[in-house]
Write a structure and sequence with these properties.
203 residues; 12% strand; 5 strands; five-stranded parallel β-sheet
Amino acid sequence: MQLVGLTGGIASGKSLVSSSFEQLGIPVIDADLLAREVVEPGSQGLQVLVSHFGASLLTPEGELNRAVLRHIVFADPAEREFLDNTLHPLIRQLSDQRINELTRQSPPYIIYAVPLLFETGQQKRFDRIVVVDVPESVQMARLLQRDGSSTSEARAILAAQATREDRLSIADDVIDNAGSIEDTRKQVLALHERYLATHEGSA
């Protein structure tokens, strides 16, 4: 069984690719969802963040106020480093648990979607790495439209991530998501068939 890492820059279309694999019956673990899980009310992760950043980080319902946290960490690289050092080990632990649970079900392969795969140096975890690729101009346009970000905010978000060249340097397979949804799904299907053939060949 192969563990396939799926990555790409913000607004590159990882969700479309992930859902396309899921529609083909392949289990997908999403690091973004794990990141939410490790800061749920009552969690160790949330307790550490509140101890460090203060109670203003919480909504009236006791949940993490992501807008406040995002404002703090994008304004201060040291605070972003603290956040990463706090959450990444917790996400890694939870992802290992989910991978082990799914492995027992013997799927042909598992997709683990990790936005910051290159940035967190996780390349060696995976048998193959798929990069969802679009030009930076497409990311910018999608960010401005999707999130209502200003141009300066969008540039700061892109600057905080690995470059397109960095991501492509670790890719075993690339999905070009600058075209239509149908075109992207065709590329996912072609990869799926290749991975199935590899699985059947090693069985």
